[in-house]
Write a structure and sequence with these properties.
By secondary structure, the protein is mainly β. The protein has one helix and eleven strands; from the N terminus they run E-E-E-E-E-E-E-E-E-H-E-E. The strands form two sheets. Strands 2, 4, 5, 6, 9, 10 and 11 form a seven-stranded mixed β-sheet that branches. Strand 5 and strand 6 form a beta hairpin. The longest helix has 5 residues. The protein is globular and about 40 Å long. The termini are far apart. The relative contact order is 0.32.
Length: 128
């Protein structure tokens, strides 16, 4: 399983970025895939997740209304559109997946240890 994240960068507060994660190496039809982040000195936390079966989406409270997750199954790519960024969003953002996705998206989003496959992170830095 391979996950390749891209799209990070430096942006001013209030700005936007779009992260992309291209995945490969599995054909299991029932999976969950999403974004997690880790800021310096903090634990890794769930940001947003989407399910393959019905494209249900899940968000951390801190990003609701600002971030939007979407997927393009034809391209095996999941996106995270991040708007109204603020300095607290600064972190290394990881794409992760798990299959099969038996449980609610919140089960995976709430505990990164429930995700078994991880890509390398992409850095997002928001300046004030």
């Amino acid at each position: 399983v391979q996950l390749q994240a891209s799209g990070g960068g430096l942006v001013q507060a209030g700005g936007s970025l779009r992260l992309s994660c291209t995945f490969s190496g599995f054909t299991y039809p029932d999976y969950v895939i999403g974004w997690f982040r880790q800021a310096p000195g903090k634990e890794r936390e769930g940001v947003s997740l989407i399910t393959s079966t019905d494209s249900s989406t899940y968000y951390a409270d801190s990003v609701k209304g600002r971030f939007t997750i979407s997927s393009d199954s034809a391209k095996n790519t999941v996106y995270l559109q991040m708007n109204k960024l603020h300095p607290d969003d600064t972190a290394l953002y990881y794409c992760a997946t798990n299959f099969p996705g038996y449980y609610s998206g919140n089960y995976y989003l709430g505990d990164p240890s429930h995700m078994h496959y991880w890509g390398k992170g992409t850095q997002v830095t928001v300046s004030s």
